[in-house]
Amino acid sequence: MLAGACARPGTAGIFTAGNGTWQAAGPAIPAAVAGQDITVSRLTRTAQGMTALLLAGRGPGVSVLAAWSADGGHWTLSPPLPLHGGAVTSASFGPDGTAAIITGANRGQITTRAGSAWLALPALPPGTATLAPGPGGTADALAVHGGTLTIWQLAPGGSTWAKIQVINVTIPYGSSS
Q1: Which of 97, 103, 128, 172 is 20 to 30 A (C-alpha) from 122?
Q2: What is the residue-wise DSSP string for 73-139?
Q3: Is the pLDDT of residue 130 over 90?
Q4: Three-state DSSP class for 30?
Q5: In this structure, is residue 76 part of a structural domain?
Q6: Is residue 176 part of a domain?
Q7: Would 123 be classed as within a structural domain?
């Protein structure tokens, strides 16, 4: 499979190779964003199949959708999440196809393979660079400051992040030639 932006509005540019030719294999786009430009921002294979992150629209009207396919042909989509003029600055996928994003407003959102609505996470810890969705609805926020990586965890249904690990990384500043 491969993916990218499609010049045809309302079409997700996901293609699969078979019998020496490429075939369109993207999901049907929901009516709420049909007719908008669709860009496949991420496409990855997981243990459950293919997972994609789609951007619908342009400018202040951009929405994000997660898409899942167990067989590369039949897709389940999350509802569109309006970004209100923002952008996705980080995206990751976890167990069971869970999708997690950080927006330009430094807000975290998560959705599950069941096509459920996006869930807004509590305010992210300072310096959060990415989210790592975990099993059972947990999420880890990986925050960076200089040579320190701090991992914060959010329990399922939790409202606060708990610091679970700190890793100090030696960075030899000025050592490149």
Answers
A1: 97
A2: SSEEEPPPEE-TT--EEEEEE-GGG-EEEEETTS-EEEE-TTTPPPEEPS-PPTTEEEEEE-GGG-E
A3: yes
A4: coil
A5: yes
A6: no
A7: yes
| Residues 101/43/41/77 CA torsion (nearest 10 deg) | -70
Kindly report, residue by residue over 11-46, the tens digit of the pLDDT: 999 998 888 899 889 999 999 999 999 999 999 988
- Cα separation, 109 vs 15, in Å, equals 27
SS3 of residue 24 by DSSP: strand
Distance CA 98, CA 70 (A): 14
| Overall number of domains in the chain | 1
pLDDT, mean over the chain: 90
Residue 177 domain-assigned (yes or no): no
Integer Cα distance of 148 and 129 in angstroms = 12
In terms of average pLDDT, the best of 36-40, 92-96, 103-107 is 36-40
Domain that residue 33 falls in = 2-168
